[in-house]
Structure formats: C-alpha cells, structure tokens
Amino acid sequence: MTSDESLARIKGFVFDLDGTIWEGPTLLPGAAELVTAIRGAGHEVVFASNCSRHGGDVLRDRLVSMGITAESRDVVTAFDLVGDEIRRRLGPVPVLVIGTDELVTVLREAGCRPVGEDQASEALAVIVGVDPSFSYPRLRAAARAVAGGAAFFAINLDARFPVGPDLFEPGCGALAAAIATASGSDPIAFGKPEHPLFRVALERIGRSPDVVAMVGDSTASDMAGGRAAGMFTIWIDQNPSQPKPPTVDLVVRDPAELLRLWNKLAHEAGAGPGSVPTSQTRL
Asked: 118, 132, 226, 282: most buried by Cβ count inside 10 Å?
C-alpha cells in the first residue's frame, strides 16, 4: 500500500504544534484550512505538544487567537501529565521543581510538596521543565538531589524548540542534560517520544492507532513516538533534502501541501474537496 493510499484510510489526526501548526507567532501555511478540512470530513483532531512551560489551556487559547477552533479536550501537553505521573509513580512526595511557577502549582495541586533550593536534600523527586530562571545554584541543587537518590524526571527531552524562522530557545532537554551530566543519572521523560502523551491523545481521538496519523516536524519525538504507538506518521520537513527516515510514512513540506494531498484524495474518492464519503468516516 502506498503512502497516499494509507493516508486515505486515516480517521483521526494528532498534530504537534511548534514547527507543525505554528512557528513562533505565525501560523504555518495551510494549517487552519487543513484542520477545518479534516474536521469537515467528520474526523477528530487533537493537538499534542511537548510543552513544558504551560498547560493545554494556554495553548488552546493561542490556537483560538490564531483562528483555529479548539476546546480544552482538543489539546494535550506533556506538562498536563506531570502531576498525575509523579503521584502515580511516587505518591505525594517532596519535589524540587526546575521550571515555571505554573509547574509548581500543578505539582502542589497533585498533592506534592515543592521545596526550594535550600531544601533540596529533602526532595524525593526532581522534575525539570523549561525554566527561564535556570541558574548555577538551581543546577547545583538539582544535581545534588539526584545524586543523593531523588527520582529524576523531565517533562520532555527536547534540546530546543522553535520560536521563529531559524530561531530557537533552549528546551527542557537542554536543562535536563546539564543535571544528568552533573548528577550521573538520566531522567525519565513523560513527553514525546515516550508513550504517555500518545496514549492520552489516542484516547481523545477514540480510534485505534492504525487509523490515526501523527503529524509533526521532529523525527526524534513526533515520528519515533508515533511509529512506536502504531500510528501513521507524517513528517513536516520544510527543506526536504535527505532520504525519508525509517520512522516516517509520508513527507510534506508544510500543512498546505498536506491539505492539497488530502483534498486530492477526497476528490478522487468522489466526495469533493475537503471531505470523504460518509461511508468512510467510521470503521
């Protein structure tokens, strides 16, 4: 079966955000139209982000401000999983937080007790997200806590995230790597390519993974994680210049190219652009 034929079988889409739907403050070409066309065909769309600074509601509001309708259940982030994952694995423990005040709040609401750098020896867990206030004292406190036996978690392992054309910010993975180097221990991650985020996204889609597509710009997180979850993988590669990686089923330059392909397949199926026959909208 060709990639195009496989795409014609897809009944739900999970989209990454940074580098896939938007780049910094700008929507990528065709992104809003693509989401509208997929929903118009009767298929579910979920946005799944490795964001480690904000929860899904912040990203939902950003989607809406850019012209893409979204409800709370349509957006799932690695950030949203932190509280439940820590509590499930360790219970309500004292935790040293390397991240934003919002992350501290999420962990406190999950029953954990956030501790400061001067109390790092009390921490039974260290959790790392994007931290605009990251400093040498924070690095020292976290590394000592992990070396002393505290469980070590990172929201994701992304070394960077895009904020504009050829611009990026250091990601959660960059901070976690510094702590790992100093402590001698590697973190457990919750975000892509690990399974928890894909499990939640698929539950919200309500389809089996073989008829759901993961669309993203990262082969290391989006494509590898989507393939491991059993999903059809679509790589957004704005400058295609290399062979298709083994974890990728379909390569497109941007959402606009995927929209053109989607409409072409729908038209060939006899339903007209942007839709599929009603008989094909359910398995």
From this structure: 226
CA 171 to chain centre: 13
Residue indicated by tokens 């065909």: 41
Give yes or no for a contact between 264 and 38, defined as CB atoms under 8 angstroms apart.
no
Inter-residue contact 18 to 180 (CB < 8 Å): no
What CA–CA distances, in Å, run from 15 to 38, 84, 100, 164, 282? 12, 23, 25, 18, 20
The backbone torsions φ and ψ at residue 12, rounded to the nearest 5 degrees and listed phi first, read: -160, 150
Q: Residue 179 is encoded by which pair of tokens?
A: 């702590």
3-state secondary structure 37-106: HHHHCCCEEEEEECCCCCCHHHHHHHHHHCCCCCCHHHEEEHHHHHHHHHHHHHCCCEEEEECCHHHHHH
Q: What's the predicted TM-score (pTM) here?
A: 0.86
Torsion, Cα 84 89 94 99, to 10 degrees, reads: -50
- The C-alpha angle with vertex 47 and arms to 41 and 49, in degrees rounded to 5, equals 160
* pLDDT tens column, 172-230: 999 999 999 999 999 999 999 999 999 999 999 999 999 999 999 999 999 999 999 99
Residue 158 and residue 171 in contact, taking contact as beta carbons nearer than 8 Å = yes
Domains and CATH numbers, the chain: 3-50+193-280 (3.40.50.1000), 93-189 (3.40.50.1000)
Closest-CA residue to 52 (of 90, 28, 85, 13): 85
Q: Write the DSSP symbol of residue 219.
A: I
Strand segments (E) across the chain: 12-15, 22-23, 26-27, 44-49, 75-77, 94-98, 113-115, 125-128, 151-154, 160-164, 167-170, 188-189, 212-216, 232-236, 250-252
